[in-house]
Amino acid sequence: MDLPVNSFKHAIAAGRPQIGLWCTLSNAYAAEIVAGSGFDWLLLDTEHSPNEIDTVLGQLQAVGAYPTTPIVRPAWNDPVLIKRFLDIGAQTLLLPYIQSVSEAERAVASMRYPPHGFRGVGGTTRATRFGRVKDYAARCESELCLLLQVETKTALDQLESIAGVEGVDGIFIGPADLSASLGFGGNASHPEVVKVVGDALRRIRATGRAAGVLATDPALVDHYLECGATFVAVGVDMGILARETTQLAARFKR
Question: Among all residues, which ones are annotated catalytic?
Fold first, then answer.
């Protein structure tokens, strides 16, 4: 049995824009519903969602039947969390709140087996197809993808250095936390925030790394794509459900 190909990793390396959906409902059934929608990737969140190892496992299994790439966001840049998500078969991770080169280097080391890192070795994990993938430990890095989330002014000041860490595939700008860090109270659509995000995306692309962002306003998505964004989340499942059901009820309730 061969090592699964990470189509998302190869697409962003080639500069092909990838459009995704943020998934916060923490449920395999909900993940399967949106998996057939046509998005290139789905973000399975555990930082701001009530999602754990076992529920993410169910989501990975549900999404696996569809032509979309699941990306898992651990709650923190924690080697133990990273190891566990990789072992259950996640090939692409988005790590939040990266602030420095040393934190980026720690993230890379967490993704790699010794002697290049310190990921713990497990022989019969789901990632190895339960021991059926030949030479998994020697070959897995070619299909693992590491995305780092930059979301503060402190991190932006070190953006090129963070992006330059070997083993990093892409940098994702977190607009909500960044807007708060810049003093705009979580207003991610503030003109100054939009300006800073657009500039950050250009800076990331100049380093040769893929640049990502989340934006739910179609005009803002188009703007960020023009700025060089390679992977963009264009909606949040919970937001879509809340908005659409509210509008439906308002349409018929007198």
Answer: 48
